[in-house]
Amino acid sequence: MERERKKEEGGKKKEGKKKEKKIKKEKEKGKNRKIKNKDDACAALQFDGITLDICPLRVSPSRTAIMPVNPYFLPQSEAEMEMCSRTIYCTNIHKNVTQSALKYFCQEYFGLVSRIRLLGDDNHATRIAFIEFAEAAGAVNALNSTGIFASGIPIRVCPSKTSIRTSSFPSSGLGLPGYRENGPSPLPFN
Fold first, then answer.
1. Which of 94, 117, 123, 151 has the greatest count of CB atoms below 10 A from its CB?
2. What is the mean pLDDT of the chain?
3. Would you call 30 exposed, middle or buried from its count of C-beta atoms within 10 A (0-12, 13-18, 19+)?
4. pLDDT by residue (tens digit) across 54-96?
5. 114 CB contacts (<8 Å, ≥6 apart)?
6. Are strands 126-133 and 113-119 parallel, antiparallel or unpaired?
7. Domain ranges of the chain
8. Contact at 8 Å (CB) between 132 and 87?
9. Phi and psi for 129 in degrees, rounded to 5?
10. Class of domain 71-159
11. C-alpha distances in Å from residue 51, one per residue of 4, 48, 56
């Protein structure tokens, strides 16, 4: 019984090492695999838990649909592209977290925050935020900390595709809950 268990464990380790070598080979060749169909996505899920160097690889299916970004919100100038490189998009923020508490949290762990836009409403348990750091290093620190817990919930951190705009938006196309042109969300916990 013990012998069979050890044999089974050894087989799993060998299989994991084979997958790790395959990933390293593709990385060395400069291949960047793109997921083009459902079969590729299912194959990618098999790499969950494999350790590359000293970091475990996490692969999981998306919990949200991929929505295209309105071209109006994409960077329109070099200055906006630079701001975008210092901006992160965070999801899964507890609905009771205030803008000032989030700013303090980010400055404590990642770096000086220039601007912050916290969005959400009372109908959802969590909110989203766009956070612009004074330096790109702050955004990099935050991106490396995705999954950090705040108010008991792991925050998901992604690079932002857009900068935080201060100019007025077209009244017809925004559709974001909790948005107000002249400052933070009009929600009662701000």
1. 117
2. 75
3. exposed
4. 777 777 776 666 667 778 778 888 888 898 899 999 999 998 8
5. 86, 132, 133, 134
6. antiparallel
7. 2-56, 71-159
8. yes
9. -150, 150
10. alpha beta
11. 25, 9, 4
